[in-house]
């Protein structure tokens, strides 16, 4: 039996590295689907105009659902200011106040997420209208807390590496 040339398929045909008609590489049975290598793309996020604190919480909840955290609800523990949203595997805080978020705010959210985690890991994220102090950015980066800002248009914007990663990977 002759050896197959490198440009031949496993069956000895001269089809190159794959069958252009089916997109299936030679040597791989066409009835077995190829493994999924990339996540399905999400549709674009549909913003909601923010007019008050309740709208800010609504936008954050919709954004978490868009990221893949389903069944969002109001968290049982209330923060000193703002609101918290819980979903399976995620605890988020929404701060509609017009003061920048501080390192203490980030730490309180992170500690609450760690105490609620138990055996199942719980991530956390922070949403604010007024932005973050430089100390809050530094603390969030060290703890791996995603930070998002929101404006009146209702589209959360990632502002640190952890937030960009969360947007890229989703839940």
CATH architecture of one domain: 3-Layer(aba) Sandwich
* Radius of gyration computed on alpha carbons: 23 Å
User: Which percent band covers the strand fraction?
Assistant: 5-15%
Structural class assignment? alpha/beta
The strand order across the widest sheet is 1-2-3-4-5-6
CATH class of one domain: Alpha Beta
Q: Helical amount among residues, as a percent range?
A: 25-40%
DSSP summary: helix tally? 4
Shape descriptor: globular
Number of strands: 6
Average pLDDT, rounded to a whole number, is 81
The CATH topology of one domain comes to: Trna Endonuclease, Chain: A, domain 1
Distance separating the two termini: 52 Å
Q: Order of helices and strands, N to C?
A: HEEEHEHEEH
Which residue ranges are poorly predicted, with pLDDT under 50 across at least 5 consecutive positions? Answer: 4-17
Q: How would you sum up the major sheet?
A: 6 strands, mixed
Quick structural overview:
The protein is an alpha/beta fold. The protein contains 4 helices and 6 strands; from the N terminus they run H-E-E-E-H-E-H-E-E-H.
């Amino acid at each position: 039996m002759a050896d197959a040339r490198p440009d031949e398929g496993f069956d000895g045909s001269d089809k190159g590295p794959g069958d252009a008609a089916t997109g299936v590489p030679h040597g791989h049975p066409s009835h077995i689907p190829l493994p999924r290598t990339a996540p399905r793309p999400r549709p674009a996020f549909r913003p909601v105009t923010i007019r008050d604190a309740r709208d800010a919480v609504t936008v954050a909840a919709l954004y978490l659902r868009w990221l893949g955290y389903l069944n969002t609800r109001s968290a049982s523990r209330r923060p000193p200011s703002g609101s918290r949203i819980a979903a399976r595997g995620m605890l988020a805080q929404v701060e509609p106040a017009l003061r920048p978020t501080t390192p203490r705010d980030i730490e309180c959210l992170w500690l609450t997420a760690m105490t609620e985690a138990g055996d199942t890991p719980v991530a956390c994220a922070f949403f604010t209208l007024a932005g973050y102090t430089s100390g809050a950015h530094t603390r969030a980066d060290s703890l791996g807390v995603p930070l998002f800002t929101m404006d009146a248009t209702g589209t959360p914007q990632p502002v640190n590496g952890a937030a960009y990663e969360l947007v890229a990977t989703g839940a």
